[in-house]
Amino acid sequence: MEPLLTFSEITKLERRTQEDWGITGDALMESAGQALFHAIANDYPTMRSLVIFSGSGNNGADGLVLGRYAHNAGWAVRVVLLKEKGTELFQRNLTICKRMGITLEPLQSASAILEYCKAQGAGVLAIDALAGIGLKGEPRGVLRDGIQTLQRYCSIILSLDIPSGVGSPTWSGETETPSGTATGEEQDSWPTIRATRTYVLGCLKEETFHPQNRSAHGRITVLPIGFPRQEIQNLAQAHQISRDDGPAMTTGLRRDDFKNRRGRVGVAAGSVRYPGAGVLACRGSLAGGAGLVYSLTSSPHGRDPRLSEQIIPVPLDAHVSEAAIRTVLGELGLDALVIGPGRPPNTNLQAVGNQELMVAACELGIPLVIDAGGIQSLIEDIPLLDEICCRIPRRAPIILTPHLGEFRRLVQALETWTLREDIHFPGGSDSQKTPENLGQLHRQLLGTPRLLPDKARLIAQGLNLHLVVKSHITWICGPQPGKDFVFDGVTPELGFGGSGDILAGIIGAFLSRGALREPGHAAASGVIAHGTAGRWLVDQGRGYIDAEDLLEAVKITAHGLSAHEG
Ligand SMILES: NC(=O)C1=CN([C@@H]2O[C@H](COP(=O)(O)OP(=O)(O)OC[C@H]3O[C@@H](n4cnc5c(N)ncnc54)[C@H](O)[C@@H]3O)[C@@H](O)[C@H]2O)[C@@H](O)CC1
Ligand SMILES: [K+]
């Protein structure tokens, strides 16, 4: 698990490292430059030529130190400078580079240098040391020119610390189709280097994993440069998770486990319009290791031959009362309930609405995974969200699994929500007419300009729930500060209709086995099992994968995470 720090936390880390631990800025920079040279020499063993685009801040200074090490090793090094005046560390290293006889050129001659290098036939590695975490807003002036020149002329670009131009992301990172689903398209609002690789110095940055920023980085390598590990851990609010972290976060199978203890998952999913979503969510739960799966639906998928032998149908085809729903759910003894894949948000379109199911499950203390149509029900009814999250005393964990478009709509709904006199909370007393937690969350969201993960954190903490915000980067934010996760292993091949339904089912399975211990871990394990299954299939050369492929692979990856106990 790798800790992530925001730009501002890294600035704090640098200050504490120098002031409290006595490690100087020069020492950090020296180890950064040295680590950079060894990493690059290792990754490109046949290259012997660097063109370093250096800004005048400490990111530029990193480039100069790297240049010194490469020069000492006999490489051809040329430095393109934006300015000759900069930070103290920049200035000191520039003086050393001059003494060493390293070629320094102004930006105006950069194209000529690059033409020269290409003509040599040896190829050239271009180093992006124009700006790092000190960038403030949109790149302007000479920095803008530097970014554009470097991007135009160089094919292999290695960014130091972060691709220059990556800064504080705004709301515009993803767009939506008319039907309301996120396309994942990126919007380049200002010039930013799109690197072949990024050598991250010291520790990973949260900003790297904002969905709209990740692809600018190319392949990522983290280089330790001497920051004290304790300080990084103290500051980190989130960690990057990978396959290796799964077993520690998963409730393993016990030798004496049997179907009732492997987890009993209810799946309220699918509809006449989307019967397949219900099938896939049920099968996702089975592939994720659930011992028993109940399909709560009136849709025709109950008759699907692939389900008939393994999934227990619980028909909800009459207009049953709320009390009857509670009885049904209570008798099943569910360890988790998945609500939403393929279910319309509108109660009128189905026999039993999402609202009644959610309230009943919460009152019975059944852990919930809410996806798709279930999320839309909450977006359209913010007081319902407040009720299930904050007003039902017995409630168990709630995990919401929106994709980026749904997440954006949820944020908008919470931001535009206003306290109204006529808000009615079912069964509520007068005092419950003042949802102060919603009011506070509403104000906090409006005061936080950035999107992910800041807003996800506010919502998760303000409403005491877990959010799994799905995209090519998946963020998992929970109610407890410091325990957020990011998963960076989602391949585009996983982006097909039904993939999210399967994921909801898998998370339901993990939740059913260890829900009350750590719901964030159940969500993370589900995301890892789903993501590594997709990656594994692609690595096997399976090309465009479908739901059948994915379900087969999830059986293996989910099982691999559930290490046997004894
Ligand atoms: N000594 C230290 O504490 C360490 C610093 N490190 C490096 O230092 C970097 C941060 O350095 P700095 O804080 O000096 O800043 P940067 O070097 O990241 O960038 C700041 C430079 O960009 C300019 N700039 C900022 N916003 C601009 C805009 N909108 N348009 C045009 N120009 C703009 C500034 O005038 C300055 O020249 C890190 O990313 C990392 O590469 C690392 O070597 C780790 C150790
Ligand atoms: K950079």
UniProtKB/TrEMBL annotation:
YjeF N-terminal domain: residues covered: 10-233
Location of region: Disordered: 167-188
Cofactor note: Binds 1 potassium ion per subunit.
Binding site for (6S)-NADPHX: 58-62, 132-138, 161, 277, 342, 403, 501
YjeF C-terminal domain mapped to chain residues: 242-561
Molecular function via GO: ADP-dependent NAD(P)H-hydrate dehydratase activity; ATP binding; metal ion binding; NAD(P)HX epimerase activity
Annotated Polar residues bias: 167-184
GO BP annotations, alphabetical order: metabolite repair; nicotinamide nucleotide metabolic process
Cofactor requirements of the protein: Mg(2+); K(+)
Pfam family of the protein (one): YjeF_N
Catalytic reactions of this protein: (6R)-NADHX = (6S)-NADHX; (6S)-NADHX + ADP = AMP + phosphate + NADH + H(+); (6R)-NADPHX = (6S)-NADPHX; (6S)-NADPHX + ADP = AMP + phosphate + NADPH + H(+)
Binding residues annotated for AMP, in chain numbering: K470, S471, H472, I473, T474, G500
UniProt keyword ATP-binding present: yes
Keyword NAD listed: yes
Domain of life: Bacteria
Role description: Catalyzes the dehydration of the S-form of NAD(P)HX at the expense of ADP, which is converted to AMP. Together with NAD(P)HX epimerase, which catalyzes the epimerization of the S- and R-forms, the enzyme allows the repair of both epimers of NAD(P)HX, a damaged form of NAD(P)H that is a result of enzymatic or heat-dependent hydration.
Family assignment from sequence similarity: In the C-terminal section; belongs to the NnrD/CARKD family.
Matching PANTHER family: ATP-DEPENDENT (S)-NAD(P)H-HYDRATE DEHYDRATASE, ATP-DEPENDENT (S)-NAD(P)H-HYDRATE DEHYDRATASE FAMILY MEMBER
Assembly: Homotetramer.
Record-linked HAMAP family: NADHX_dehydratase, NADHX_epimerase
Protein known as: Bifunctional NAD(P)H-hydrate repair enzyme
Organism, as annotated: Spirochaeta lutea
Gene: nnrE
